[in-house]
Design goal:
- With about 190 residues, this protein is an all-alpha fold.
- It contains ten helices and no strands.
- The protein has two domains: about 90 residues, RNA polymerase sigma factor, region 2, helix turn helix motif (Rna Polymerase Sigma Factor, Chain: A, Orthogonal Bundle), CATH 1.10.1740; about 90 residues, Winged helix-like DNA-binding domain superfamily/Winged helix DNA-binding domain (Arc Repressor Mutant, subunit A), CATH 1.10.10.10.
- It is globular, with a radius of gyration of 18 Å.
- The C terminus is likely disordered.
Length: about 190
């Protein structure tokens, strides 16, 4: 029943107090939230806690929630704010500087799904690991999560032009260091046309 609803209608069900609608959203988006959370901070328990807290907050404040046309965007943006706040709070508490740690896999897995060569997969992972965390994040959001350029810019707190510059730097790096890997070039072409 819920799968046939568009995001606006499904979100409306949650604001009206439908627990099953919220449970459906949780089941549907938990994997994407977890993957993205692990890209931001490689602490599984922190990410899971933030996801669960996010859904508790949604339920408790359901009557005050504004409408949304993209549940995925709303959830990812909210999770990013929650993880950032939690990491900053922990850093202040223990006197450390927060460090964003990017997970090793995601965009490259999508790119080379059709490839059976383990050697190619390892080479791509090594290339992606060399990218700064923000460049890994923009590739993840644009290619793996499928966000539009404007949604990606909003989620990363960048202007649209800055997001294009960041994406361009990431693609240039991949092209320069790919050593002739055709699938990296295909990624660059796909990202430019998204």
């Amino acid at each position: 029943m819920y799968a046939s609803l568009n995001d606006k209608a499904l979100w409306g069900k949650v604001t009206e107090g439908d627990k099953e609608a919220l449970a459906f959203i949780y089941r549907t988006w938990f994997p994407a939230l977890f993957r993205y959370g692990m890209k931001l901070q490689a602490d599984e328990s922190l990410v899971k806690d933030c996801i669960h807290d996010l859904f508790v907050t949604i339920w408790l404040s359901r009557e005050r929630l504004s409408a949304t046309d993209s549940i995925k965007f709303y959830l990812l943006a909210s999770l990013k704010r929650r993880i950032t706040a939690q990491v900053q709070k922990s850093a202040v508490h223990i006197g450390e500087v927060p460090e964003t740690i990017a997970a090793a896999a995601s965009p490259e897995d999508v790119i080379i799904k059709a490839q059976s060569s383990q050697e190619l997969r390892l080479k791509l992972v090594k290339i992606m690991d060399q990218l700064p965390p923000r460049q890994q994040e923009i590739l993840h959001l644009r290619f793996y999560e499928g966000f539009s350029p404007q949604e990606t810019a909003d989620l990363m707190d960048l202007s649209l032009n800055s997001s294009y510059v960041l994406l361009s730097k990431a693609l240039s790096f991949l092209k320069k260091h790919s050593g002739g890997l055709k699938c990296v070039l295909l990624l660059a072409i796909q990202l430019v046309h998204l």
